[in-house]
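FAQ: What does the model actually see?

It sees only this:
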Amino acid sequence: MTSDDERPPAGPWCDDCGYQLDRRRLLKGIGFASLMALTGLGVPSQVAIAMTPMPTRARRLLAGKPSYPLPPADGVQIDRDQEVILVRWQSAVYAFNLSCPHQHTALRWNQGDGQFQCPKHHSKYRPDGTFVSGRATRGMDRFSVTRNGDEIVVDLDAMHKEDKDPAGWSAAVVHL
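And it is asked to produce this:
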């Protein structure tokens, strides 16, 4: 048992890992093991744990620092497996979290107007992640990036939110 001052602050976020615990993710994560337990099928706990989907943040930690070829021209690349959007725009390269900062829906690139848009609440963002309009209250979340020769290395453990870390957010860019 821990004392009140040792407990993490109340809320849906784990501040240490950035993982959002919400009902949908919790149920998805424990669904298989719980179903087996409720139906009495007696699946050994090791099997149930091995078959339980791994939270997105944990997959990122195992992935390390992915690298991508330096984009030859302005454009957008989406890596759904790592949940990274890589953008080259106006002599700069950015890496963004695929999720909208408003309610974590996967963002889409609209080639026609040259902006990102959230399909859920229609927030819009410029190619550099700057918020344009909609329900969101900040720009897209950026990952720290570095250049290694002809590769862009993305640090999935260093995500910067424009409202909480403006200096880190502004610095999360590779200028070409």
